[in-house]
Write a structure and sequence with these properties.
The structure is a homodimer.
Chain A lengths: L7 E2 L11 H6 L4 E5 L2 E6 L3 H10 L2 E4 L5 E5 L3 H8 L12 E3 L2 E2 L5 E3 L2 E6 L2 E5 L5 H12 L4 E3 L4 E6 L3 H9 L11 E6 L2 E6 L8 E6 L5 H12 L5 E3 L3 H6 L35 H10 L3 E8 L12 E5 L2 E12 L4 E9 L8 E6 L2 E8 L25
Parallel strand pairs in A: 4-16
Antiparallel strand pairs in A: 2-3, 4-12, 5-10, 5-11, 6-9, 7-8, 9-10, 12-15, 13-14, 14-15, 17-20, 17-22, 18-19, 18-21, 19-20, 21-22
Helix pairs in contact in A: 5-6
Chain lengths: 393, 393
């Protein structure tokens, strides 16, 4: 028996490579996970070094794992509305919306960004679950007149305070006019892309959706070259920055067993709209009865949790289990351990002292407001502009 | 730019740990992948050393990633039949069946093993796709009277020629009477399990489905202790052995774009049965028109492909593209590179000379019969008993 503290990832044809995979290896990605049956790089230098490059400059991420489900056809608009409790009646072509997809119990199937390409054509830019199968099953049995497939689309993210300059150098000055959660279909030296002002960093940022998988390496290098004067570096979704911004991660912070009200996302559920969507009856019951647990932030004592948590950690309040901590990591700029937790209403109140049961034993923690870090309120970042978590748009 | 040849796997709460995860780390798993949103160990000593331990002895595998979808209720039997083209009318409680799940085009959604627990209660022991969402979507929109959920069930596999002795030491002599693709509900010192004579090794073997996730470590160590006199070692699904036996891997050798007839699995499609199942009309059209490509084996020249392929490799016949090689690896006992490929009918004929376009350049290959290794026909293994690929039962 010899415990291996740093196991390797095995590569096989069972898990797909994104069009940027070769580039991520060439640029020295040191660790990977998988997401939607595809490899996702996690960091290049170190998670902390990559974080500083993100928050002080600009980084380029291979998030080809954000697979798209394209839904088109005569029933597409009604079907998309059936999939999500969020009211989409005012959504315009060219606009993105953060949406929750719920099942018949109100549990969360996925939390994608919706892109409305046309009145009868949509992309769902997915978190990690097979929404393709969910949507196909619903459409088949429900006899909806829609086409559903996974198109050849693979996103990159260009994130960080210097991202507007890099994007303007690549695409032109219209980048500065692109509104938060809007997109434009365009091209870069003949490479077809969609450019949106979205991202998963809580920093200013953009996504570039590649629409021709054969040109991934070329697109990656063009962005790196244009970003060089601004010090661009390869990067990846930063657990530190997303927890600072209280952005949620599907699989960690929510799954089929969690409903929107527990996450404080009731504004994404249009109960009073007259719209028909999956889970409406269950969500109405939950809203009426009230939830028994609630998402909250924790400031956790003890040594820096550089590696974060590798599974959910039980929390205790007044000596009894009160829920679970779903995500945690040490913030180098805030200099404390941040935790996201789903706790009983009583335990989730601001200021409560709780205990988090990590593998090394119990850690004292305090319930604190979210987000942990807000550039507008922080003395540390005079120059950073107001950013919002994806959940806000 | 510094390419990293052996990247690490990152662990986070987004991907789940099986109940045996701690044991796999303690026993020294050196590499992991993920499967059904869960970590799966890949090898302990080395892929080749683990292979020899499997084929000459017995190994214990954490395949908790084979998540179960449980379907129960008044419509369960009819709904299960609706999900698969295989005729289940003769299937008895206590029996397992290898089934394909197809979509409305005949494309393969998953290739699970079905366990019939009762006339109105079934498990689908899954390959890597979210059949939970597929089945829930179909049942919801189709108004089927079924309950669908993922139960607390996590399989281990005990595989190899010495597996009957280990299993009999644990469970008693009835193990020797357990027929291929049958199972029994039982317990081990109070730990609730299902024991089946199934597995993904092409060797004699069993699965032990743990029904209480809190007791994973305990179950793992009990099997290791009982297996010690027989030289049991920790192991994992062996790419070498499964390709020798021509067992298929969902994601590598098939996906939504592949139909059963292309895989030579027409016997799992009950077109003439009068049964109603998803994809029947499309499959009837495909059967009538005939397929344009076919699954076949390749013997590939060149240096040993110890690492296998990391993505599909294009194949050429007479100078033109003729399909793709989906899986490949070097067999230490056969001393050649085995490949599985989906090729045009013309190129797939036995004896054809084709070219495989690997990353290092083209490799000459010849189409050969499957499986590559059959103990009954091999001079190398007088003692090994007849084994069958999972697809046979």
């Amino acid at each position: 028996m010899a415990a291996t503290s740093s196991p390797l990832i095995g590569f096989s044809p069972r898990v797909r490579q994104s069009p940027f995979f070769t580039a991520t290896q060439r640029w020295g990605a040191k660790a990977y996970s998988t997401y939607n049956h595809m490899y996702m790089p996690l960091y290049y230098d170190s998670p902390v070094a990559d974080y500083w490059k993100l928050v002080e400059g600009v980084t380029l991420w291979d998030v080809g794992v954000e697979r798209q489900v394209e839904i088109s056809g005569p029933d597409a608009a009604r079907f998309i509305q059936y999939l999500t409790p969020r009211d989409l009646s005012e959504t315009q072509a060219g606009q993105c919306k953060y949406v929750l997809l719920c099942d018949e119990t109100g549990g969360i199937v996925n939390d994608p960004v919706l892109l409305k390409l046309a009145e009868d054509r949509f992309w769902l830019s997915l978190a990690d679950s097979d929404v393709l199968l969910w949507a196909k099953g619903l459409a088949l049995a429900g006899k909806w007149d829609v086409e559903i497939h996974e198109p050849d689309v693979s996103p990159l993210q260009v994130q960080g305070p210097k991202s507007p300059e890099v994007m303007a150098a690549l695409f032109g000055d219209w980048i500065h006019e692109l509104k938060y959660f809007w997109f434009r279909e365009t091209e870069l030296d003949g490479i077809p892309v969609v450019v949106s002002r979205t991202g998963w960093s809580s920093e200013r940022g953009y996504e570039v959706f590649l629409r021709d998988g054969s040109r991934g390496d070329e697109l990656w290098e063009k962005i790196m070259a244009a970003g060089a004067p601004f010090g661009i570096a390869p990067g990846a979704p930063s657990t530190i920055r997303r927890i600072e911004g209280a952005m949620l991660s599907y699989g960690s912070d929510m799954d089929l067993g969690v409903n929107p009200y527990e996450l404080g996302l009731g504004r994404l559920v249009a109960l009073d709209s007259g719209l028909d969507f999956i889970g409406k009856a269950a969500l109405a019951r939950i809203e009426k009865a009230g939830v028994s647990r609630r998402f909250c932030g924790l400031a956790i004592e003890g040594a820096p949790l550089h590696g974060g948590n590798q599974e959910h950690w039980i929390c205790r309040y007044n000596g009894a289990d009160c829920g679970k901590m779903t995500s945690a990591i040490y913030s180098p700029r805030l200099d404390f351990n941040m935790g996201l937790a789903l706790l009983s209403l009583e335990a989730a109140e601001e200021g409560r002292a709780v205990e988090v049961l990590g593998p090394q034993g119990p850690l004292p923690a305090k319930v604190v407001p979210l987000p942990f870090y807000d550039p507008m309120k922080s003395l540390a970042t005079g120059a950073a502009e107001r950013t919002q978590p994806a959940a806000s748009a």
